[in-house]
């Protein structure tokens, strides 16, 4: 079955109203592939700004949320708040949340369950560190991370899996198209064995890790690469080229 190509832009902790406003103008005026779903992950303080300024056909995502609706959780935001400002997606389990802020698989799974129960789409991030790849345990690591998500997902139609090898994020190193395809294929096989064949066929598995306008066409040509989660390049005009990966092939 055909899976709609999905390109997410993770702005991380970057930008201000002036620079993001310029980026938004660029995206709004560009000719974007209508067959690609586009979602921009804005810092929480700019979610409402991004949603108000971006063309409605471009989605907006929060970069994180908490596992309950409200309460004494200083500094956190809930799916209810995210929806209240017109935003319909959240990025969960990003490696920076895991390795910089110490979020566990268990917590990320709980966040995922709560976000889905409250009607948000989830970009669910998984990926191995360099020492794990070199030790030959990539598959074991990502299967364990995926299981914590899967145990908390009832409806997979609102989930996009994002494979991001930690060693390739912001380093300029990119997994080769063959490396990306190999992991995506194994992930799909895991979903087929542990969730269902229907979900394995329909779930979009996207790649993240130093994706650029120069690397996107070859990566995007892989059978099981259904799009990208883009970091640094999502803040530049070349994000348009990445969105248009499948135009003029």
TrEMBL record:
Keywords on this record?
A: Gluconeogenesis, Glycolysis, Isomerase, Lyase
| Pathway where it operates | Carbohydrate degradation; glycolysis; D-glyceraldehyde 3-phosphate from glycerone phosphate: step 1/1; Carbohydrate biosynthesis; gluconeogenesis
| GO BP, one annotated term | gluconeogenesis
Name of a matching Pfam family: TIM
According to the UniProt record, what class of enzyme is this?
isomerase
Per the record, the similarity remark reads: Belongs to the triosephosphate isomerase family.
Q: How does it assemble?
A: Homodimer.
Q: Which NCBIfam families match?
A: tim (TIGR00419)
So what does this one do?
Answer: Triosephosphate isomerase is an extremely efficient metabolic enzyme that catalyzes the interconversion between dihydroxyacetone phosphate (DHAP) and D-glyceraldehyde-3-phosphate (G3P) in glycolysis and gluconeogenesis. It is also responsible for the non-negligible production of methylglyoxal a reactive cytotoxic side-product that modifies and can alter proteins, DNA and lipids.
Report what the protein is called: Triosephosphate isomerase
**What species is this protein from?**
Oncorhynchus tshawytscha
């Amino acid at each position: 079955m055909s899976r709609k190509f999905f390109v997410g832009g993770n702005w991380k902790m970057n930008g201000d109203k002036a620079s993001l406003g310029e980026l938004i103008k660029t995206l709004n005026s560009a000719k974007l592939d209508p067959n690609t779903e586009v979602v921009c992950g804005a810092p929480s303080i700019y979610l409402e700004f991004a949603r108000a300024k971006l063309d409605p056909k471009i989605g907006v995502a929060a970069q994180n949320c908490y596992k309950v609706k409200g309460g004494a959780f200083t500094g956190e935001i809930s799916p209810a708040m995210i929806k209240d400002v017109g935003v319909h997606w959240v990025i969960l389990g990003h490696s920076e949340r895991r390795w910089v802020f110490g979020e566990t698989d268990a917590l990320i799974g709980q966040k995922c369950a709560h976000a889905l129960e409250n009607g948000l789409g989830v970009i669910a991030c998984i990926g191995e560190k360099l020492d794990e790849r070199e030790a030959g345990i990539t598959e074991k690591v990502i299967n364990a991370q995926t299981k914590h998500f899967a145990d908390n997902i009832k409806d997979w139609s609102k989930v996009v899996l994002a494979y991001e090898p930690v060693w390739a994020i912001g380093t300029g190193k990119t997994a080769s198209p063959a490396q990306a395809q190999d992991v995506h294929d194994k992930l799909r096989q895991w979903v087929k064995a542990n969730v269902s064949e229907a979900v394995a066929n329909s779930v979009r598995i996207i790649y993240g890790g130093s994706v650029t306008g120069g690397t996107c066409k070859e990566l995007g040509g892989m059978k099981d690469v259904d799009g990208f989660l883009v970091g640094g390049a999502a803040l530049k005009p070349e994000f348009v080229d990445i969105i248009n990966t499948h135009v003029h092939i």
